[in-house]
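ok new one. same drill as before - structure tokens go in, u give me an amino acid for every spot. 498 of them this time. try not to just spam alanines like last time pls lmao
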């Protein structure tokens, strides 16, 4: 048994054998400046960590976080962190097997909106709160995947749109707090999305303002004129905390934490400098504060995210189950580098301050970290949300500019092969996708129509009509069926070597 994590551990100066770093600041002096919706692992490995860095330098004590849970499943994290006085342990998993734990103290407390929505609204309406931040997942923004417009059909959204309703959703709570601030003559807070989706600030602005338009057009107009929604690019591999992680923290470091966070050592946050009423000095904690996030965002989407798709299907079909297994195989790593160098990178604008060659090799090193144990099944999930947004634009750009597309065609063909639902060993594949039935039906039709999978215009636009692309796609699909994923990559490597 270890020491139960709580403020008393810090106050009593329990040394924990000197192996667990802790806040050096006086947490009794913290005041809430940020309200954060969605206090999951990524937020605690990212934004909360950067604030803790600032606080350890004696800065940003008035920018502490109050976390808010909205969904029923958020009750557990609210209860866990409140029992620990907002404290939790962030454990970096280094490739050599070493662990680097640190107690993070930037979260003051947690609120559970279903129990007391008024407390959440009142806090956000308080002038001391200057930022409301979000990690509510892509689905939390209620974007219609076909039209790109706000989808108001969600039950909670419909509830909040009713006259006199007590808000129950993040959108409803935020808009009501902005209304109260407007009525009181208080400067509105910044709405800062930290979710991993392209143009996250633009998406947050469009969707939350669309909700406000349906609720109160005057508030929507006020928001358009007065509320900032900065874009950001966020990057840190943060796997789900496993029971083994909790046990290891207790057994190795003598600390009992009900919900620690584990992650890779690497972290990046590129943030647009567009705030309504001030911000912490994030740049002093290592955040890249810039005027335009888009070049960095495209770099991540087209190199990191697309490479995840380039490794997950062929890796899974070949019998691997973890990303590090794939990336420690030279054949697969070479394919990923080939995609990044020859197809992904040529589509990018200049990325200020970034050495793309070093970034590409760093990605392979990060993916190959055996301690992170990122599953291929996770990377293969929701492909119909990922491939159309991440890889299809790469293909379209390269087709328009006479660039290479064969590797991208192989990635899409490997998704089509994966979606058949059986791997090369004859074992069933659990295809997890919001469009599972549609995707698997298209994959099942490939025996009679080799382009069946490409005929979904919502996913692939007009790629099915491009002869250069379809020739590469069919050749890749045929090879995957006849020779298997590994042999297909070996043929690709032989071609590149010639």
């Amino acid at each position: 048994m270890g020491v139960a994590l709580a403020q008393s551990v810090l106050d009593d100066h329990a040394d924990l054998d000197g192996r667990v770093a802790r806040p050096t600041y006086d947490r009794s002096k913290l005041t809430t400046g940020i309200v954060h919706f969605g206090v999951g692992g990524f937020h605690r490995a990212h934004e909360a960590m950067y604030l803790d860095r600032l606080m350890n330098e004696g800065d940003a004590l008035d920018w502490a976080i109050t976390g808010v849970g909205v969904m029923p499943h958020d009750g557990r994290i609210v209860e866990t962190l409140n029992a620990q006085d907002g404290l939790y342990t962030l454990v970096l998993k280094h490739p050599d097997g070493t662990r680097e734990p640190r107690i993070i103290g930037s979260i003051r407390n947690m609120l559970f909106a279903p129990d007391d929505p008024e407390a959440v609204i009142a806090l956000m309406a308080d002038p001391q709160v200057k930022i409301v931040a979000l990690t509510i997942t892509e689905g939390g923004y209620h974007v219609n995947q076909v039209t790109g417009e706000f989808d108001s059909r969600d039950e909670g959204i419909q509830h909040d749109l009713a006259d006199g309703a007590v808000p129950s959703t993040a959108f409803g709570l935020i808009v009501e707090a902005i209304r109260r601030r407007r009525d009181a003559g208080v400067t509105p807070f910044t709405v800062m999305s930290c979710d991993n989706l392209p143009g996250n600030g633009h998406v947050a602005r469009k969707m939350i303002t669309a909700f406000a338009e349906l609720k109160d057009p005057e508030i929507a107009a006020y928001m358009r004129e007065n509320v900032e929604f900065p874009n950001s690019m966020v990057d840190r591999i943060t796997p789900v905390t496993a029971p083994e992680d909790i046990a290891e923290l207790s057994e190795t470091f003598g600390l009992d934490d009900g919900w620690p966070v584990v992650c890779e050592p690497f972290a990046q946050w590129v943030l647009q400098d567009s705030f309504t009423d001030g911000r912490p000095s994030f740049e002093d904690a290592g955040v890249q504060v810039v005027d335009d996030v888009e070049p960095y965002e495209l770099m991540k989407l087209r190199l990191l995210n697309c490479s995840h798709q380039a490794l997950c299907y062929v890796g899974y079909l070949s019998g691997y189950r973890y990303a590090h297994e794939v990336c420690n195989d030279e054949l697969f790593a070479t394919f990923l580098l080939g995609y990044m160098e020859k197809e992904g990178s040529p589509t990018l604008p200049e990325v200020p301050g970034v050495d793309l060659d070093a970034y590409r090799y760093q990605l392979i090193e990060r993916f190959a970290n055996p301690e992170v144990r990122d599953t291929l099944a996770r990377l293969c999930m929701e492909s119909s949300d990922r491939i159309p947004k991440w890889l299809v634009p790469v293909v379209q750009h390269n087709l328009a500019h006479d660039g290479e597309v064969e590797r991208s065609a192989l990635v899409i063909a490997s998704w089509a092969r994966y979606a058949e639902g059986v791997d090369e060993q004859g074992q069933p594949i659990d295809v997890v996708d919001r469009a599972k039935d549609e995707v698997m039906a298209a994959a099942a039709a490939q025996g009679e129509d080799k382009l069946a999978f490409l005929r979904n215009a919502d996913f692939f636009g007009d790629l099915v009509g491009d002869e250069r692309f379809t020739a590469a796609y069919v050749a890749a699909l045929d090879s995957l069926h006849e020779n298997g994923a590994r042999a297909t990559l070996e043929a690709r490597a032989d071609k590149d070597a010639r």
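The two ends are 60 Å apart (CA to CA). and btw The longest helix spans residues 294-318.
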